[in-house]
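Quick one, T. Sequence first:
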Amino acid sequence: MNNKKRIIIGLLLIAVIIGAAYLIENITKRQGLNSAKIVKISEEGKTAAYISTDILKQLMKQDVNEDDLSLGPPLKIAMHAAGVSEFTKVEVKGENQSHIILNEKDIDDNLIIYLVNNGTMNLCRKGKSTVSIIKGIYEINILN
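C-alpha cells:
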C-alpha cells in the first residue's frame, strides 16, 4: 500500500472511532437520565452539568458529620459541585411529571438528595428520608 491509502484509511478509522464514542456517550447519558440515575443540572435551560449517584456519594463523604445519619448530600452542595453558586429559584423535576419550585430561602442544609438503594435519587427533608418531596429526580433547573 502506498502512503496515501494508509493516510486515508487512518483518517477513516479515526472518524469511525470518534463517531462510535459520541454515540456510546449519548446512549449512556440518555439511559441514565431515563432511569433517574443521572441528574441533569441546568441553568436557564442550558445544561451546566450531569451528576451521578457516585458523585453524590463522594460529596456525602465530604459533608457527613459523625452524628449525621442522612442518606445523601444537601441539594445546595450538589448545586455548588455543578458550578452553581448564585440562584433565586430552583425547579426540581422528578418521575411522573412531578416538580417543585423552591425559593433561595427554602434551600438549606436540611434539604437533601436522598440516594435510594436502586441508584435513583429523591428530594427529601433531613430526618424524614422516607417521605420524599420529589421521587426519581432527573433534572434540577436553576431559575434566576
